[in-house]
Amino acid sequence: MILNPWILTMLTGHAALFFVFSLATINAWWIFSGWDFTSSSEKQYGLEKRTYLVSSVMNLTLIIQMLMLFLLVMAADELAKILPGAMCATGSLSSNKYGFPLLMIKIGSFFIYFVWWVLNYLDNQLEDYPLVRKKYLALVCIFPVMISETILLLLFAVNLNPTVIASCCGSIYNESSAGLGGTMAGSSPLMTLTLFFGVVSIVLIWHMIENIRGYRPTKKKGGLEALLWVFLFVTALLTVISFISTYIYEMLSHKCPFCLLKAEYNYIGVPLYFFLFLATATGLTKGVLQWMGAEGPLGEKAIWLRRRLGQMSIFSLLVYIVVGYSPFIIYYIRTGRTI
Amino acid sequence: METPTQSGSWLERQRSIIDYSLQSMFRRRTKNSLILVMYVLLIFVVSSVFFITGSLTVELFSTVDELPDITVQKLIGGRQVVIQESYFQAIREIPGVEAVEPRIWGYFYLEELQANFTIFGMDLTMLEEGEYQRIVDWGPALKKGEERPEFRMIIGEGVSRLLKAIQMEDSFLFFQPNWDTAIPFGIIGTFKSETQLQSNDLMVMQTEGARRVLELKEGEYTDLVVHVPNPEETKMIALKIRRYYPELRTVTRAQIESTYTSAFNWKAGFVLSSMLVVIFAFLVLIWDKASGLSPAEKKEIGILKAIGWDTEMILSVKFWESFIISLLASIFGVILSYFYIYWLHAPGLKEIFIGWSTIFPSFDLVPHIDLKFLLLIVTVTVIPYSTIAIFPAWKAAITDTDFILRNN
Question: Does the global pTM surpass 0.80?
Answer without folding.
Answer: no
